[in-house]
Structures are given as structure tokens and as C-alpha cells.
Amino acid sequence: MINNNKIFCIGYPRTGTQSLTDAFKLMNFKSLHLDFDLVKEINKKGNNFNFTNYYNFDVFSDIPFPLIYKEINRRSPKAKFILSIRNHKNWIKSIEILFTCLKQFIKKNNHRYPWLKEFGIFHKKMYGSSEFEKNIFLKSYDEHNKKVMKYFENKKDKLLIINLEKDNNWQKICSFLDTKIPNMPFPYRNKKTDIYKTVGYN
After folding, report:
1. Chain Cα centroid distance, residue 106
2. Domain covering 2-199 assigned CATH 3.40.50.300 in the classification
């Protein structure tokens, strides 16, 4: 795939990271959505993490990648990056639902899955709070997007900025990667009802 170069989707959760993962799978890329092993590594070692899944997949999305894109670019200089963004109002509403569901799920299952605490540790690093705080999360979201754009401003061939709420997403992605556009609808996944099913929210 693309001379064995890796692709990292570094938009925040709830910006279409699952849809991007599904899109790449439809294009026969080996794609990983959320690398929990790497989350634990970063919690323990920071940027000295061991990236054990690097050679197992072509495309990586969701956490922890928004937090480590600079280190990834340093280690993998031929990699390409996709920053998914969306309307502020839609994003904050969506991330609030996710964290509300997660909070309930953790409350019910923390005794069964002690590893769930790793998410709280990581969320504190990325958002500035382990639990949903509207102003803190919005500030983190804005700062992340601005920092990514600034970092890649002289490397524009390495970064695609995409809003999946808009049209022509296959065209944008395939043009960026110089690959053929699939003859199928673009996948849109992980909407509100999907969150409810995943964490057993009611």
C-alpha cells in the first residue's frame, strides 16, 4: 500500500475516525481503530513508547494518535496524516454523549475491567480532563487542530484536512493518496445509536 507508507488519522474521536477506518478497509488497507496497547504504553512511557502494531497495519486512527503525531512523523518520515474535523456544535454534543456513556459503562464494569482506568489517564493527557468538561474539551479540540495545521504548514503534501460531514470524501481521500476511487458509497459509521450499543447505555 502506497510504497508501504503508513497513514495516521489524527483527528479527535467523534470526528469520523471509525468511518475513515471503514473506508480504508473497503480499499483493502489493513486498518486499526484505537490502539489500546499503545494507549497503555504512552501512559507509562510517554514518547518512549514501543509501537508493536506498526508493522501489522497500514492505517491507524482514533486514540492515541492525535496525541503523538509529531513523534510518529519523526519515526516514520514517509507517513501521511489525515486530520478529520467537524462543526464545533456537532462535535461537542457527540463527545459529551460518548463520555456520558463511558462514565456509566466504567461505573458498572470497573470491578470487572480494571484496565478501564487507562482511558482516564490518557484522556487527562489529551483533553486536560479525564471526565467531560465542555470548555476544557473545546479548548483542547481547537488547540489540537491549530497545532496540527501549523506543524504541517510547510509539509502540505503530508496532511489532508477533511470534514466528513461534507461531500466528495472518496475523491478527497483518493486524490491525497493517489489511488483509485472505489465504486461504492462512502461509509458513515459510529453514530449516536452505535455508541449506545457499544457501551450498553440506557
Report:
1. 21
2. yes
Omega within 30 of 0 (cis) for the link into 64: yes
> Which residues 6+ apart lie within 8 Å of 197 measured at CB?
none
pTM higher than 0.85 for the full model?
yes
Give the tens place of pLDDT for each residue, 10-67: 999 999 999 999 999 999 999 999 999 999 999 999 999 999 999 999 999 999 999 9
How many CB atoms within 10 Å of residue 50? Answer: 11
C-alpha separations of 190 from 13, 85, 198 in Å: 10, 15, 9
Report which residue type is found at 108: K
| Single-letter amino acid, residue 18 | Q
Using CA atoms in the order 42, 46, 50, 54, what is the torsion angle rounded to 10 degrees? 70
pLDDT tens digits for 91-149?
999 999 999 988 888 777 776 777 788 999 999 999 999 999 999 999 999 999 999 99
Is the distance from CB of 39 to CB of 64 less than 8 angstroms?
Answer: yes
Domain ranges within the chain, ordered by starting residue: 2-199
